[in-house]
Design brief:
Rossmann fold; single chain; 2 domains
Length: 353
């Protein structure tokens, strides 16, 4: 393939994973500066990728679609006549989807027989942070036999830099919408955000701990803003009702789009959260973060950004990170032993409050 003008990338992973892929898309644009680069993303998070300057089109794929609806979606994309398909997710759904889109050539992660759907399978080794994992793919692209003709006589250096981090730019439209929603609460600036949600039960810091840390911070005169998706609203309401001093407590949970949330997080002084999408959004807009890690691996999923991004983990446990959605030992010590006072003391020592 001497010239490549149309590329489709498939990645149906979660919000944090998509943000971790930002440096990958920057590098992909360097490798293919003249190409149209499109992305198929999980419909729950596609909005956040539409502001990525290195992507031309972002298509939303709903994982709840029927087989017939998915087939129709893929066949519509097939009409774009992509020359190169890239699978950086590597599960059965994405493998089949890319096959149905019928790109001229395809390369990506396979495993468990999924490589049969690709023209070239790339070795999948997640032994580093996800950002480096994606950046390594760029180097594998340049070594690909499939793309040998394209890269011949091209000398493009893309480093799998451990200092790389996503940068999320929020436009004025979403900033203004966020400002209006904050103003409606009577909140403008100098606030700390608490994000209580998590895609897994085991990623969620206990509800009573969020109430307790809110009380600690309110006692010190800080305004506290709770955020979250609509599915977090009931949990947030429960936590807010447990807080003793509600005078400086504000709740925006379930009331923002993803990009409005990004604008809100950009205005905040600090975001305290478990390992879940919004903490990575906060890091990507340059806000300081304090991320509480339980079952997930901070070596792979730690927030990265321009701000100060600190981690909390239970270093005395040898059962973490287990990556389980339910605690196999039924004690949940990885989260329960990380007390609110510990978090307050550390963020104070770091000069974050």
């Amino acid at each position: 393939m001497e010239t490549i003008k149309r590329i489709i990338v498939v990645d149906l992973l979660y919000l944090g994973d998509l943000l971790f892929a930002h440096p990958f898309f920057e590098g992909l644009r360097r490798l293919f500066p003249e190409a149209r680069i499109d992305l198929v993303a999980n419909s729950n998070f596609a909005e956040i990728m539409r502001v990525n300057p290195n992507l031309d089109h972002v298509y939303s794929y709903n994982k709840n679609w029927t087989t017939a609806r998915s087939y129709k979606f893929a066949k519509k994309l097939k009409m774009n006549n992509y020359q190169l398909g890239i699978n950086i997710h590597g599960n059965w759904r994405t493998a089949l989807l890319l096959k149905l889109i019928s790109t001229d050539k395809s390369i990506g992660y396979g495993g468990q027989g999924r490589g049969l759907f690709l023209d070239e399978e790339v070795e999948k080794d997640i032994s580093s942070h996800m950002i480096e994992f994606y950046l390594k793919f760029l180097n594998q692209l340049q070594q690909s036999q499939l793309l040998e003709e394209y890269f011949k006589d091209k000398n493009i250096e893309v480093k799998d830099n451990q200092a790389a981090y996503p940068v999320l730019r929020v436009d004025q439209t979403h900033i203004q919408k966020a400002d209006k929603k904050l103003a409606a609460l009577g909140l403008e600036s100098e606030f700390i955000v608490l994000n209580t949600g998590g895609s897994w039960k085991t990623k969620r810091w206990p509800e009573e701990y969020f109430s307790e840390i809110a009380d600690h911070l309110v006692e010190k005169g800080f305004k506290i803003l709770f955020v979250g998706s609509p599915s977090d609203t009931e949990r947030v309401n429960y936590i807010c009702n447990k807080i003793e001093n509600k005078e400086l407590i504000y709740n925006l949970s379930g009331k923002t789009s993803l990009l409005e949330l990004a604008a809100v997080l950009k205005k905040s002084e600090l975001v305290i959260s478990g390992d879940t999408g919004p903490v990575h959004v906060a890091a990507a807009v340059g806000t300081n973060t304090a991320a509480i890690f339980g079952p997930s691996d901070e070596e792979k999923y730690a927030p990265r950004g321009q701000g100060n991004n600190i981690l909390f983990k239970n270093v005395d446990l040898n059962c973490r990170p287990c990556g389980e959605h339910e605690c196999p030992l039924e004690h949940f010590k990885c989260m329960r032993e990380l007390k609110p006072g510990m978090i307050v003391d550390r963020i104070k020592a770091e000069g974050m409050i």
